[in-house]
């Protein structure tokens, strides 16, 4: 990236850059001063800022700016500080753009899917992920892209899933422990061990924040049926927007309530919208769990009936066969979901046998950090 020319604007309060490709970008003096890359401003070891905004003069302006092909040299007033910015860094951090993104947009790294993913489920063997950083990056990248992936080759023994979580981060311990049992039997002595199917849902919507990743490992699955099922909630919301944008807006506008009081001493409650949007209207997450929904008390009377129509509409879309991917887990298999996006379920089963899974939670920021570090180390591993 080469800078062709640079011009001061507003008496040095800003500047304009013209690149060799003809594109332009404007930057404010205070923004440049605050983001200086010199060792007095940024730690060379960890990149953290060593000064506060109050250390930058309030009336900061640019005295001079000189383009040096692949860098930009600046001198600020009133403190006389001199800094240099790589041209490529400025291009990467350009904020001089007008973006009118639609409500519910997602970044380029996100790929929404339906039943078509069944023929191309992202899968890696545990041994490959442990011994090949590129294989691990490919698997983590698939989770970033699809919110779902499978791993094979685990030892079908208690606690084995913790080894998978350790590949990219740490287990998020909850009131359920470091891991929890998902054990079902065909003729159970306790209804907690039922073989009934479960509606597609996200886990722990009554927490704030919710666990952002869930891992489920299979130790035993000798029953007939009981297939696992996943649904891309972002794809379901895309369909909802197309079919009834007013329904999407209602679910994003008003908070729902969720609660859990199933154990002594535990009273978990959260008040969040089912559809979470960022300030720039980016789609950030979906909380959908009918079993954990508390009475909705934050929707006005005049909107409650339509809100329930929107809730039902989304539930109906989630149940459509064209949106689901089903698969049969074998002992030693594990799948992971982005719990802010991908809903998971279980088909019912009958006959003889049992189904024993173990689950744990982890955090997506750990996964994305590990992935970014590998992609920086091995650029060819980047998607």
TrEMBL record:
Keywords: Dioxygenase, Iron, Metal-binding, Oxidoreductase
Enzyme class: oxidoreductase
GO biological process, one term: carnitine biosynthetic process
Required cofactor(s): Fe(2+); L-ascorbate
Residue ranges constituting the TauD/TfdA-like domain according to the UniProt record: 121-361
Keyword Transcription listed: no
GO molecular function terms noted in the UniProt entry: iron ion binding; trimethyllysine dioxygenase activity
InterPro entries linked to this entry: AlphaKG_dependent_hydroxylases, GBBH-like, GBBH-like_N, GBBH-like_N_sf, TauD-like_sf, TauD/TfdA-like
EC number: 1.14.11.8
Domain Gamma-butyrobetaine hydroxylase-like N-terminal: 8-90
Catalyzed chemical reaction(s): N(6),N(6),N(6)-trimethyl-L-lysine + 2-oxoglutarate + O2 = (3S)-3-hydroxy-N(6),N(6),N(6)-trimethyl-L-lysine + succinate + CO2
Xref: SUPFAM superfamilies: Clavaminate synthase-like (SSF51197)
PANTHER family: GAMMA-BUTYROBETAINE HYDROXYLASE-RELATED, TRIMETHYLLYSINE DIOXYGENASE, MITOCHONDRIAL
General function of this protein: Converts trimethyllysine (TML) into hydroxytrimethyllysine (HTML).
Family affiliation: Belongs to the gamma-BBH/TMLD family.
Protein name, entry field: trimethyllysine dioxygenase
Organism, scientific name: Denitrobaculum tricleocarpae
């Amino acid at each position: 990236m080469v800078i062709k020319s640079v011009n001061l604007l507003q008496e040095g309060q800003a500047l304009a850059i013209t690149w060799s490709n003809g594109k332009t970008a404007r930057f404010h003096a205070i923004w440049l001063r605050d983001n200086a890359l010199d060792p007095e401003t940024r730690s060379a070891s960890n990149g953290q800022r060593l000064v506060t905004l109050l250390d930058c003069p309030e009336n900061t302006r640019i005295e001079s700016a000189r383009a040096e092909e692949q860098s930009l040299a600046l001198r600020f007033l009133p403190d006389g500080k001199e800094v240099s910015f790589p041209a490529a860094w400025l291009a990467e951090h350009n904020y001089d753009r007008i973006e009118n993104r639609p409500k519910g947009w997602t970044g380029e790294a996100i790929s929404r899917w339906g039943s078509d993913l069944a023929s191309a489920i992202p899968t890696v063997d545990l041994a490959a992920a442990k011994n090949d950083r590129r294989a691990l990056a490919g698997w983590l990248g698939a989770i970033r892209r699809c919110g779902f992936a499978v791993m094979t080759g685990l030892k079908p023994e208690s606690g084995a899933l913790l080894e998978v979580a350790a590949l990219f981060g740490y287990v998020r311990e909850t009131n359920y422990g470091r891991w929890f049992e998902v054990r079902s039997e065909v003729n159970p002595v306790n209804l907690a061990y039922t073989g009934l199917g479960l509606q597609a849902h996200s886990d722990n919507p009554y927490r704030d924040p919710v666990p952002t990743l869930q891992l489920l490992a299979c130790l035993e699955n000798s029953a007939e049926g009981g297939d696992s099922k996943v649904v891309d909630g972002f794809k379901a919301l895309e369909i909802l927007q197309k079919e009834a944008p007013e329904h999407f807006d209602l679910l994003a506008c008003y908070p729902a309530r969720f609660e859990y009081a199933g154990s002594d001493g535990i009273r978990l409650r959260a008040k969040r919208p089912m559809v979470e949007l960022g300030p720039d209207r980016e789609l950030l997450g979906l909380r959908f769990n009918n079993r954990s929904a508390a009475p909705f008390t934050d929707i006005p009377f005049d909107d409650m009936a339509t809100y329930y129509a929107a809730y039902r509409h989304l539930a109906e879309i989630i149940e459509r066969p064209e949106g689901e991917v089903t698969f049969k887990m074998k002992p030693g298999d594990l799948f992971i979901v982005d719990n802010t996006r991908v809903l998971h379920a279980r088909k019912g089963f009958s006959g003889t046998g049992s189904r024993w899974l173990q689950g744990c939670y982890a955090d997506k920021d750990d996964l994305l950090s590990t992935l970014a570090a590998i992609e920086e180390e091995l650029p060819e591993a980047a998607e």
